[in-house]
Design goal:
single chain, 491 residues, alpha/beta, six-stranded antiparallel beta sheet, 19 helices, 19 strands, 48% helix
């Protein structure tokens, strides 16, 4: 027995009862799905207000939820580690410097007396050895990357962008394709009233909302809450409703001021012999909405469109990603009509609908095979495999724990608009890292020949170990100051 409000423990098939099941964690579809006898239920999904009896068909590691967790682990294990540029340079630089120091000592000791007295040659050999080792101390190389990364991560936190590691920040700078989930990422993630239509002269939108909300007060339908919330937000007065009763799978009816009203689906209106205006179908398709029709015994009075609304920042976020030459694809478990409606409002480049978790992961892999560096942004359990597979996973802070754990970056307040800022910040940070490495290396390219005494026979130039130490310290200070510029640069 599955009571109202409980999560489904295992995969199964309903044998008794009817209820709306919230499957958004698996499919990404925000609207609860009505389930009846013979329909399947998936472990981890949330039961609505009805009681259900179901027969288990998959348990433990065989459930869909367990398979999603398994895919996440496999994807995380397959990700190649990012090799830091500083480590590569240091691996070559240190042996080269040691070789130069030893050679300069040997040359001045063995051949220096041809230019200067032997005692001075010995002194010059020792000074050259020490000066080369001091000025070539790879402190600046060691500081070049971590100082910039630490500053960049800190700057990101100021913007509400939480970055888990340096590798994620480095890889984000290379991203040229972003796959975004629809529900909870581009959209609010819950149904809300997006439009109210009047279908009869003399009837106002306020009257339609008031009558519908008055009936829905006593409804257990999952969409009733969105109508009631919208009415309360707009200070709509509720009317006394009597003899309210639900009509299974169709809607609700009741008396308001002695007159009978009905609120329900398009199917309910058609069964009652109501004429459906063509423009209603156009509005439903445009908003990809679920219509709740308000009727009396003779005609349709109005319609309330309920849909998962686009986040205010979504359109600007996609536009700014395009400015960065980043392709944006939307991946959703929702139907194609809902996906296309959101695509029109946000301007994404590609739409992929009716995707299961494994399909989203496959989409990311296909883009990677085309040579793209892919970031995946999502918030649900169904997004976790794709988040783990992507070069950079980006989670919303309101999302499922497994999604946040699978991701490399978390955006606070679930604001997709921060993704563009994160990419821009990563590119600036990596540019400063490259500048740091250049200056750290340039100091040594200029200083090492001088410290080794290369110019002494021609110009009498030689670098004292004390000045070599000062130059080495200056190179480290330059790198640190350049990294701190990140705090002032406008992102």
């Amino acid at each position: 027995m599955l009571r109202p409000g409980e999560r489904v423990p295992v995969d199964g098939v309903i044998s008794e009862g009817e209820s709306a099941i919230d499957e958004s964690m698996i499919t990404g579809e925000p609207m609860p799905v009505m389930k009846k006898v013979g329909d399947s239920v998936v472990a981890g999904t949330l039961n609505g207000k009805g009681a259900l009896t179901f027969r288990a068909i998959r348990v433990g590691q065989a459930t869909m939820l367990a398979s999603i967790i398994r895919m996440v682990k496999e994807a995380q294990a397959s990700r190649a580690p990012i090799q830091e540029l500083a480590d590569k340079i240091s691996g070559i630089f240190v042996p080269v410097v040691l070789t130069i120091a030893i050679l300069s000592f040997a040359i001045w000791l063995g051949a220096g007396f041809w230019l200067i007295p032997l005692s001075q040659a010995v002194s010059m050999a020792i000074l050259s050895l020490v000066s080369v080792l001091v000025i070539a101390c790879p402190c600046a190389l060691g500081l070049a990357t971590p100082t910039a990364i630490i500053t960049g991560v800190g700057r990101g936190a100021n913007f509400g962008i939480l970055i888990k590691n340096a590798g994620a920040l480095q890889k984000l700078a290379e991203v040229n394709a972003v796959v975004v989930d629809k529900t909870g990422t581009l959209t609010q993630g819950k149904p809300s009233v997006v439009e109210i239509l009047t279908m009869k002269d003399g009837v106002t939108k306020e009257e339609v909302l008031s009558c519908a909300a008055s009936l829905e007060q006593k409804s257990e339908h999952p969409l009733a809450e969105s109508i009631l919330t919208y009415a309360q937000q707009n200070n709509i007065a509720f009317l006394p409703a009597e003899n309210v009763s639900a009509i299974e799978g169709r809607g609700i009816e009741g008396l308001i001021s002695g007159k009978k009203y009905f609120a329900g689906s398009l199917r309910f209106a058609v069964e009652r012999g109501m004429r459906i205006a063509p423009e209603l179908g156009e509005q439903v398709e445009y908003f990809a909405a679920t219509p709740i029709l308000l009727m009396d015994e003779n005609e349709i009075l109005g319609c309330i469109l309920v849909a998962d609304e686009v986040k205010p920042t979504a359109f600007d976020a996609v536009c700014k990603l395009h400015e960065l030459k980043v392709m944006v694809a939307m991946a959703t478990g929702d139907d194609s009509h809902a996906a296309q409606a959101i695509a029109r409002k946000t301007g994404v480049d590609e739409v992929h609908a009716r995707l299961l978790p494994a399909d989203k992961q496959k989409l990311v892999s296909n883009l990677q095979r085309k040579g793209m560096v892919v970031a995946m942004a999502g918030d649900g359990i169904n997004d976790a495999p794709a988040l783990a597979r992507a070069d950079v996973g980006v989670a919303m802070d309101h999302g499922a724990d497994i999604a946040i754990e699978s991701a490399d970056i978390t955006l606070l307040k679930g604001d997709i608009g921060k993704l563009e800022k994160a990419i821009r910040l990563s590119r600036i940070t990596m540019r400063i890292v490259r500048q740091n490495l250049f200056w750290a290396f340039a100091y040594n390219v200029i200083g090492i020949p001088l410290a080794a005494g290369f110019f002494y026979p021609f110009f009498g130039w030689h670098l004292n170990p004390a000045f070599a130490g000062a130059a080495m310290a200056l190179s480290s200070v330059t790198v640190v100051l350049n990294s701190l510029r990140l705090k002032a640069i406008r992102v």
